[in-house]
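User: Protein folding is very new to me. Would you mind checking the protein record under this note? It all follows right here:
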Amino acid sequence: MPSRKYADGEMVMGRWPGSVLYYEVQVASYDDVTHLYTVKYKDGTELALKESDIRSQSSFKHRKSQSSSSSPSRRSSSRSRSRSPGRPGKGRRRSSSHSRENKNDKKKAIQETSLALPPVSFLFKLSENNTKRYNGEPESTEKNDTSCIIVEHKLKPDLEVKRVLEQYSLRSRKDEKKKEETYSEKKIFATAKPIEKAPSKTKDLEFGGRIGTFMLILFLPATVFYLLLLCKQDDPSLMNVPPLPALESLWEARTFGGFLLWFFLQALFYMLPVGKVVEGLPLSNGKKLQYRINGFYAFIFTAVAIGILLYFQFELHYLYDHFMQFAVSAAAFSLALSIYLYVRSLKAPEEELAPGGNSGYFIYDFFTGHELNPRIGSFDLKYFCELRPGLIGWVVVNLAMLLAEMKIHNLSMPSLSMILVNAFQLLYVVDALWNEEAVLTTMDITHDGFGFMLAFGDLVWVPFVYSLQAFYLVHHPTVISWPVAAAITIVNCIGYYIFRSANSQKNSFRRNPADPKLANLKFIPTATGKGLLVTGWWGFVRHPNYLGDIIMALAWSLPCGFNHILPYFYVIYFICLLVHREARDEHHCKQKYGLAWERYCQRVPYRIFPYIY
């Protein structure tokens, strides 16, 4: 593994985030997890910088020597000594013109001196000027605050930055050759690729470390089977332990074959050359993987296939009759897939390992995922399982429950409760597939490896636990009135609106912060060059998408009534899951953004629930 390049206490030149200006800084520390240097400016300001944003002082010596050899004071003094005293009239004109040049040169020298260090109030002044600009208020017009003026434009398009640099150049505009060399050097600094760096060992273990992850490997399958058995009981109380079925009844080769057929059918749809191909976020080695966005097409193809089966009188409620066997088949397959993933990860290069699953402990890495993006050729296993077999399978399971309800209770049409559950969850799945590209920026793709946690979650937990409300309604039908159904629909629409608008706002800002449609949004600049939104939904709470998720989960459970808490298990689980994810996000963002994240938390104090949490 390559070692760090700069030692603690070393004096280097650090690029101010978002600009092309470098300042003298001292290396304070280095984070092996995020690969960021904490540097300290002479005024006490501390920022976290990437290694690509730091240069040694020796790389700037040549430019400094050039500028000192042609300093304005030496040029003016040499010209004054060579002036002839015998030509008073012309000399006076020259002296007046040279005095003006000396004043201009002194102004440039003062500006260059003032830029040697960023002022103490620089970061706060930058945020204040940004806020004023978005509110339509006049910005600061101090003449000597050239550093603020230059870096203030860092979030504007490249052409605007170029214009500002030319307007506030620190070098003589007469020396075109020197300016071109300097500009090309800055351009190289701005476009330099990050130095390839292998991920270090995972230090902060989640989920209770080795013991916690071992217990989860046993607890998660047991929870799924317990919930499914409980749903078939006349009294589905959580404390009413259902009788265990015979082990031989839990396994059936036909259902396992049916699950394999479903999995490879979705794999076939994934490999079809339809849909656009996009690039993911940069990896630790600077590379970007390509992904084919065709999840919505796979959903359409699946709907057509299901329609053909129903047309030829295929009994889709067979899935309901053998629901437990299908769950066991999916769990067995996810376990086998997890073993394969861990074995192949042992031969993966260091830079391809997951930053959160490289602890060196077998059970922990097996659970969280050792390899970040396991691929067979161009077939990305993690990305495929994230949305295809489980999420689309969830819709198919709900449809099977709807048909089973009609058959068992001799209904000519499904109940209103079942229709609401199917409609709400269908909307959620279609939205995820329609906005498939957004999943490339989630922690599941960018941070978490592909191990038992995601394999079991994608293939077992999503289709068999997320469909709990529909499965419950088959055995425990609930009658609701149209006004109640309308009220529940409004609740779901509110949750969906918050969820979708918040995610769209975030994704649009990530793609193009300079989009005129986002001109009304305010943000805090960070050392990584990205911004933290402090207005809109992300100025309301830190995770508004999680708030929308929880509201929708509640709307999915309300059609089941209030006779038992079992249908609300999903809501309780979802709250616990999102609170855990929120804690992970907080820790990750604090390491990534440093002081900017602390300022963001001061501006937006509530995490998920406004005025509560």
The chain has three domains: 10-57, 201-478, 480-612. Residues 482-511 form the longest helix (30 residues).
